[in-house]
User: Fold this.
Amino acid sequence: MSDAIFKLDATVRTDLGKGASRRLRHQDKVPAIIYGGDEAPVSITLEHNKVQQAQEFEAFYSHVLTINVDGKKVEALVKDMQRHPFKPKVTHIDFQRVVAGQALTTNVPIHFINEEESDAIKLNGGHAEHHMNDIEITCMPKNLPEFIEVDLLNIEIGQTIHLSDVKFPKGVESVELGKGEEHDLAVVTVKTARGPSVEEEAEDAAAEGDEGATEE
Assistant:
């Protein structure tokens, strides 16, 4: 993955309104806005093909981007992206400024690891029910992770991993946990799947073999 996906060129947009935005989209451009910090919001225009390429990478949504606005570099995060209802086109993006030395709040994706290696899932017929796909965090810009890992290797049938069980990187905190214990939300639960487990199937096969031997 190239660092180029984290860098976008933009121009300041002065022609505003729905009609202007529609004209830009017809020219294969994306209207957007940068807001936050101590500066006023700035409406900008991006090249659609660059945005389309970048947004295919998960990291694009949880990484500090550098937007070159008419020669001025602005660091920002994607806060909202609107897409065409059926065409593969991005129609608008909201960016939030990132200010060095100021904490930021954003959502980062969860990577569930060792799910296929978990005995509860591989041998005991369990399945992981994901309650979350991302976690809202707060941290300084330098500590922003691209994702949060949740390890399912040692999880058991019927067990639920909550936010308080997640190992957050240094300097990163859960926004929900900061609101109190009642906000310790469930992240993933391993439940019993329908059908026999691998062990049960092996036991059934052995029993059938014994019965066949007895009949002979």
User: Anything to note?
Assistant: The radius of gyration is 24 Å. The longest helix spans residues 198-215.
